[in-house]
Design goal:
- The structure is a single chain.
- Helices cover 23% and strands 28% of the residues.
- The chain has helices at residues 18-25, 31-39, 109-116, 142-153, 245-253, 268-274, 280-286, 317-331; strands at 4-8, 43-45, 48-49, 61-65, 79-83, 87-92, 123-124, 133-139, 158-166, 172-181, 191-195, 207-218, 231-238, 293-301, 308-312.
- Strands 5, 6, 7, 8, 9, 10, 11, 12, 13, 14 and 15 form an eleven-stranded mixed β-sheet that branches.
- The radius of gyration is 23 Å and the shape is globular.
- The N and C termini lie far apart (53 Å).
């Protein structure tokens, strides 16, 4: 598969040469590297090969055939939970992006479905974050995709997540409210949960509802670098499907997800993570190298037969290992 990156030139870059623009906007190659790729006709402006000195205007389309961008290592251990003529139910491993974006193209679930499962155009119905593991539905045809998306948008799908969270979680906790931009965070995409009884009309698209149930709490220090507290295994049953809903809600409630760099106790950890500057203390405090969130089960109507599908993905090995280590540390302090 060839990766093509397209970029429409905004006013801020108008007047620069193609070479100057590329070196400023995409610094993973220097000017010499970009000049070589322009000479190889791997870059086009408005669908035509051009010289490196070509002056760019606002609205120009720059296209790059980007097969040589190095991609980070990922976990490609994708397993199939269910398959028929209309859909796949995939158990996505942690540390695997669902869709291409940023540095990731070949190293994505979407690409894996094309190259190893023979899907010409995978249609992912529920997208999980890169670090989140668990059930992902993939439609094999347009009609199945339409039906499955309608089930999700109509809130007829029963979803259950498992998570490890910091602290002693109560037996049951229901959260209803809004997910609003977090003005105190330097991270633009971060949201915060604000409890509310009803959704104001202007914020209807930000309404979020989740029921949480505590399953088990374990204590036991497994690191000498950080004095850790108890961890709870919980179920999260969301009735809405907002971006970062479970993680943001749990942070506001005071039980951040173990390993969550963005919605954890220390917001500076995410900044250090982005700069590849995590300390040993940061890693010990996180406990895991990814957020401990797992899409464990789905109950959904089949798009063709209309029978109910009940799909389950077992607790992943890394989450189970942390629980086992803490239980052992509690018994052998």
């Amino acid at each position: 598969m060839k990766r093509r990156i397209q970029f429409h030139i905004p006013q801020a870059y108008a007047g620069l040469s193609l070479l100057e623009f590329l070196a400023q906007r995409f610094p993973y190659h220097d000017q010499t590297g970009w000049a070589e790729r322009i000479a190889q006709h791997r870059l086009q402006v408005n669908h035509r090969p051009v010289e490196a000195a070509c002056a760019l205007a606002r609205g120009d389309l720059v296209e790059y055939i980007a097969s040589d961008i190095p991609e980070p290592r990922v976990n490609l251990d994708v397993t199939v939970i269910f398959e028929d003529a209309d859909l796949f139910a995939i158990n996505k491993p942690p540390n695997l992006p669902s869709h291409p974006g940023g540095r990731y193209f070949q190293h994505t679930l979407w690409a894996r479905l094309k190259t190893h499962f023979g899907l010409a155009q995978p249609m992912l119905i529920n997208r999980l974050d890169r670090e989140t593991s668990g059930l992902t539905l993939v439609a094999k045809n347009e009609q199945a995709a339409k039906e499955l998306r309608t089930e999700f948008s109509s809130r007829r799908v029963e979803k259950k997540y498992l998570a490890l969270v910091e602290g002693v979680f109560p037996p049951r906790l229901a959260a209803r409210g809004l997910l609003l931009p977090d003005p105190d965070s330097p991270v633009k995409k971060k949201v915060k949960f604000v409890s509310a009884e009803v959704a104001p009309p202007e914020h209807a698209s930000r309404w979020a509802e989740t029921v949480f149930q505590g399953l088990e709490t374990v204590s036991g220090d497994v690191s000498k670098a950080w004095k850790s507290g108890p961890v709870s295994l919980i179920e999260a049953l969301p009735t809405t499907g907002r971006l970062h809903q479970i993680r943001a809600t749990l942070q506001t409630l005071g039980f951040p997800v173990v390993g969550d760099k963005l919605y954890g106790h220390d917001p500076a950890i995410f900044v250090r993570f982005c700069k590849d500057e995590l300390t040993d203390e940061d890693r010990a405090r996180l406990r895991m190298d990814r957020q401990a969130l797992h899409a464990a089960s789905l109950r959904i109507q089949h798009p063709r037969t209309r029978r109910m599908l009940e799909l389950e993905a077992p607790l992943p090995a890394d989450m189970a290992a942390l629980l086992a280590a803490m239980r052992a540390a509690r018994l052998n302090p």
